[in-house]
Structure formats: C-alpha cells, structure tokens
Amino acid sequence: MKSVINNYFNKKVNKVPSGITCFLIIIALFGGIGMKMGAAPMLNTIMHTAHDLLLNTCFYLMAVCVITGAISKLFVEFGVVDMLEKILRPLMRPLFNLPGVASLGAVMTFLSDNPAIISLSQDKRFSSYFKKYQFISLTNFGTAFGMGLIVIVYMVGQGFYLEPFIGLFGAFCGCIVSTRFMQYFVIKAHPRYKFEDVAKAKDVENQIEEDLKHGKSVFIRTLNSLLDGGRTGVDVGLAIIPGVLVISTLVMILTFGPSADGTFTGAAYEGIEILPALAGKIDWFFNWVFGLTDPHQIAFPITALGAVGAALSLVPNFLQQGWADGNAIAVFTAIGMCWSGYLSTHTAMLDSLGYRELTPKAIIAHTIGGICAALVAHWTFMLTTLF
Q1: Dihedral sign of CA atoms 121, 127, 129, 131 in order
Q2: How confident is the model at residue 80 (pLDDT cuts 50, 70, 90)?
Q3: Which of 84, 147, 199, 268 has its CA at a distance of 20 to 30 angstroms from the CA of residue 382?
C-alpha cells in the first residue's frame, strides 16, 4: 500500500516539471517571435497563414485524396493491384523490401501527393500483401514520390531539362534509404511486426465473398469502388488538416521574412527568417556537401519540410536574383520530391494508419533519406558536367 501511494505522488510530482517546461517553451517561442514581429502582427500572420493553408493546401490535398482514393479502389477491385504485384515483385523486394503492389502507391503519389498512398492502404485486399513493418514504412515510401510530376514539370518550365531528372534519380535513391531505415526502426521497436500481417485473411475473404455473393455487375462494382474510395479519401483529407495547419504555419514563420517594405503587416507567410540566418552560419557545409552556393538557397529544403508547393514558389526569385544554377535545381528537385512536406503530413498519415507513436522514427528516417537524395543529385550532376 505504501509503495502504491509513493508511486502516485511521484507521478504527480513528475507532472509538474513537464508542465512548467512546456509552458516556458511556448512562452520563449512565441514571445521571441512576438518581440520581433509585434504581438498583433504575429497573431494575424498565424491566423492568415493557417487560413490560407486550409483553403489552398488542405482542401487541395483532400481533393487529391478523394480522386486517388476512388482510382485506387477501382484498381484494387478489377485486379490491377494483383497484376502489379506479379510484375514488379522482382524489383520492389530487393530495393525497398516491399511487395510489388507498393509500386501502385508510388505511381499514385507521383501523380498527386503523399496522402494518396494512405487512401490506397485503407483497402484490406491491398494491405493483405504487407507485414506490419512494411505497411508502416509506406508512409516514407509514398512521401518520397509525392508531387513528383508537378515538381519535375515546374522545373522544366523554368528552362531546365536534364537537372530535374537527375533530381528524380536522387529522390529514388533517397526513398530506398528512408524506407529501409523506417523498417529497421519499426522492427527494432516492435520485433513482432516483422511477422504479423496487417489484414487478417478472414477479413479479406469476407470482403471478396461479400462482393461475389451479391453478384454485382461491372457497372455497380465500378460505381461502388469510385464512391467508397472517394469516401475514404474524405476521411484521410480531414485527418491531414491538423498536421498541415500547425506544423506548416510554424515552419513558414521561421523561414520567410517581413513584407516587401520591411514591416510586419500581419499578412500570411510573413516571418522572422531565423532558419535561413542559422543556415548562413554553416553555408560552407551546404556548399561542400550539396553544392549550394548561397545561404538563401537553404530556404527551399526548409520550406519543403512543410509544403513542396510553397518551396517551388521560391525558385523564380532565386533564378532572377542569380542564386540558383543547374546543380541547385537538381538538388531542389531531389529534396523537394523526397521530403515533399513530410514534416506536416507524416503525423497525419501515421495517425490515419493507426501508428501515431512511430511518427518520430518516420521523421528521422525521412530526414536521412532526403539528405541522401540531395547528395546523390549533387554528385550525379557533378559527374554529368565531366562529359
């Protein structure tokens, strides 16, 4: 009885320092930003940035989830997933240690955005191919190809043709690193996940039998697949909103600067530029490792942590100011594709899969993968200049 009472009071005591620590961190963070921007502009910027992200990013991602969810459900229903599993199994196993059906997730995210693979993973027949540790690593695998087509087309539109595809190769290599690291972390934390299946065979059989039992026509199967897949996409889109609004808003404030006249007006996407300033202190490192020649260039990968679409908007100004060259475009493409806003979506993606507690491991693995992607892109570009 005495030990129980002691444990109770120890827990109560331990909670006090944690609460104080949290309170002090919040005061220090927002107090520092408020001293720089002013309290009213800071609050207005936070609200306006979050509002803009909700309208132009979150709802866009929800639309992506709905469309890709519908298409992926259709592919599962009519056997495209089974076909891909058989064709791509020899490639996917040695490189990513994933079943061949995972390649469909790469295609979906490449054509749209990270959450597309989560819409696909909600289907029991798709998830039945995976062990749990593989299934969890889909978050890293799919993210590495997120918005790939958009990034490449955008860079080509800026007048670069070879460099974006060098970046694509870098992102591919970074994906291998990130996925493998995540699988290692998951197995180390939960050894049983290496052998446990995601979907029970009985659940898969019940789903198939239910479809056969009703003798659905091709039209009805198509209609149900589109509507059910789209409904799943809505759920995933809603799950993404908190992570995007909270994390991306903070990243934006720490990355961007004041308005054009140097004042803080409370408009969206203003900030205190602390991250580029810190990067400028070690610009020699970024120059040697990635070939980035200007401290401002670090704003691209930092912004890509929250949203690669926002990062792409920096490129025209970089080119106009003479801050970016072919090497920078290759590195930007690689790290933009591989990271593609993972800091703002990993939490929501793993939460929707039911493994929120593994978010820190996913973030660490993907950070390493993005750095490797940039390294590969830089040195591959350097090799191409020799010929």
Answers
A1: positive
A2: confident
A3: 147
Closest CA relative to residue 181, chosen from 7, 371, 4: 371
Is the distance from CB of 95 to CB of 183 less than 8 angstroms? no
**Continuous H helices in 1-56:** 2-37, 39-53
Q: Which residue type is seen at 150?
A: I
pLDDT tens profile 191-233: 999 998 886 645 555 555 555 555 567 788 788 878 887 887 7
| Nearest partner of 313 among 369, 380, 243, 255, judged by Cα | 255
Give the CA count within 13 Å in the CB-facing half-sphere of 134: 24
8 A C-beta contact, residue 194 and residue 133: yes
Could you tell me the CA-to-CA distances from 80 to 11, 71, 101, 386 in Å, in that order? 53, 11, 9, 43
The residue with tokens 């890709």 is: 68
Task: Output phi, psi for 199, to 5 deg.
Answer: -105, 135
